[in-house]
Design a protein that fits this description.
- The chain contains 8 helices and 10 strands.
- The relative contact order is 0.22.
- It has one domain.
- It is an alpha+beta fold and about 220 residues long.
- Belongs to the DarT ADP-ribosyltransferase family.
Length: about 220
């Protein structure tokens, strides 16, 4: 079986890191969920995802035997960095409670290959999870990932404006995991500056696992 040498990324507040180092990236209903979890996303979108049902059609809208899942039951990751949601988190707006400084936003980096080896159940999409034009796929399709994901859109630097709505949708394709991810499945941490890096190291992250990527922020 071919290896899936693709990374996925999840953003979190730096205050969540100590819990993550101990328990991993936890699902909201996990017995190990962080009772003091600091949210950084759009609260209206988070609430919407809690009840949003999507169909796993594997790209076939006519598949009458497709199963459904609830987005809120899964831990979402992106296939890239510097996403539209990050802009809202940093600048504020929509239903983000308050803007978050870039040095307080940390990227958690995981490997699809290692997730598969760990036996975790997952799904993925070709666009933003709440968009009606998005298709969802089960793990039987993971080896066609590069044919499904639009990498040009994921890497696109410009996605604003009505003329780019589909680029924006495809840029935010998701990788959804149903269970907690052990700390060992986190292969790296991305941060904004040396100050954030030093804080991560003080929290117990190995320095070799931290990469300062200011271009990954707005």
């Amino acid at each position: 079986m071919d290896r899936i040498k693709t990374a996925v990324y999840r953003m979190t507040h730096i205050e969540n890191i100590p819990h993550i180092l101990e328990f991993g990236i936890t699902q909201k209903n996990s017995k190990n969920a962080n009772p003091n979890f600091v949210k950084v996303g759009d609260l209206s979108l988070i609430d919407n995802r809690d009840n949003k049902m999507v169909i796993i059609d594997n790209g076939d809208f006519l598949n009458i035997n497709s199963k459904s899942i609830k987005l809120g039951d899964f831990i979402p990751f992106y296939f890239g960095i510097k996403m539209p949601m990050l802009y809202i988190i940093q600048i504020g707006g929509n239903f983000v409670e308050k803007a978050t400084k870039p040095e307080d936003i940390i990227y958690l980096v995981c490997s699809i290959d290692k997730i598969i080896e760990a036996g975790l159940d997952f799904y993925f999409s070709d666009g933003h999870g709440t968009n009606n034009y998005t298709s969802f796929y089960d793990k039987s399709k993971i080896h066609t990932l590069n044919e499904i994901i639009d990498w040009n859109s994921i890497k696109a630097q410009y996605w604003a404006g009505n003329e780019n709505l589909n680029i924006k949708r495809k840029k935010q394709a998701e990788f959804l995991i149903s269970d907690d991810l052990n700390p060992e499945l986190i292969i790296g941490f991305g941060c904004y500056n040396e100050t954030a890096k030093n804080i991560l190291v003080e929290m117990g992250v190995e320095e070799s696992r931290v990469k300062v990527i200011p271009k990954g922020y707005f």
